[in-house]
Design goal:
Blueprint lengths: L5 E5 L5 H8 L8 E4 L1 H17 L4 E7 L3 H12 L5 E5 L4 H11 L7 E5 L7 H6 L6 H14 L4 E3 L5 H8 L4 E4 L18 H6 L4 E4 L1 H4 L4 H13 L1
Bound molecules: orotidine-5'-monophosphate (OMP).
Orotidine-5'-monophosphate binds next to strand 3 and strand 8.
Enzyme class: lyase
GO cellular component, one term: cytosol
Pathway: Pyrimidine metabolism; UMP biosynthesis via de novo pathway; UMP from orotate: step 2/2
Length: about 230
Amino acid sequence: MTQQSLIFVALDYADAKSAWPLINQLSPEQCGLKVGKELFTSAGPDFVRELVKRGFKVFLDLKFHDIPTTVNKAVRAAAELGVWMVNVHASGGRRMLEAARDAVANMPNRPYVIAVTVLTSMTAEDLREVGIDTSPAEHVIKLAQLTKSAGLDGVVCSAWEAEAIAAACGKGFLRVTPGIRPVGAEQGDQRRIMTPPEAAALGIEVLVIGRPITQATDPVAALKQIQLSLTA
Ligand SMILES: O=C(O)c1cc(=O)[nH]c(=O)n1[C@@H]1O[C@H](COP(=O)(O)O)[C@@H](O)[C@H]1O
C-alpha cells in the first residue's frame, strides 16, 4: 500500500451499459473501481471479472452481514472473482468476522477483507435509534478494534475517525473512507463528510468517491481535479 491515498470511484450506476462510458475513459493507474449492490445486482459477476481482466483494482462492496457460514462462503465466492478488496459489516460480530477472514486465508493473491464500522450516512441520533448510545466516533473505534482482533485487514469508516483508528489499531490497518465531498459538492445522504485534501492529509489509504465524480458533467475532469487537489 502506497503512502498516497488511492482513489476508488464508486460506480453507482443502474447497469453495466451506463457504467462503461466512464470506465472506458479510466485507466488502472489512475484509480480503483468500486462495484456496489446496485451495479452488482444488475450487471453480475461477469462484469466484475471483466474489470479485473482489464487490470483494475476492484473493491466489491457487497457489505455481507449474515451468519458466519453464509458470510464465509460469500466472501470466498467474491474472492474467486479476482477482486482486490471485499467488505462485510463489523456489527455481524467476532465469529462472523473470523469466518470472513478464514474464507480467504489460504488463497494465493487473496483480496483484502475489511469491515464497515458505522455507515458514513449515520449520526449519533441514528445510532441511538438502533440502541447504541455512544457517539459514532466511539462506536467506530470499538468495531475497528474488534475487526483488527478478528484478523481482518482494515475498516470502512468516515475520515473523521481515521486518526483515532490508526492510534488504536496501528499502522498497516487499512482505513477506507467514503463520505468524501469536495468543497461545494452536494452532501446528499452522507453525514460524516470530509474534503479530499483534508482526508489525504491524514494519510488515509483509500478514499471512496462516487457522486461528486459520476454525477459531474465531465466525470473524468472531476476525478482529475480531485486528484490535483490532493497534491496541491
Ligand atoms: O462500504 C462502503 O463503500 C460505504 C460505507 C459507508 O459507510 N458509506 C458509504 O457511502 N459507502 C459507499 O461509498 C459510496 C459513496 O458514494 P458517494 O456518497 O456517492 O460518494 C457508496 O457507493 C456507498 O455505498
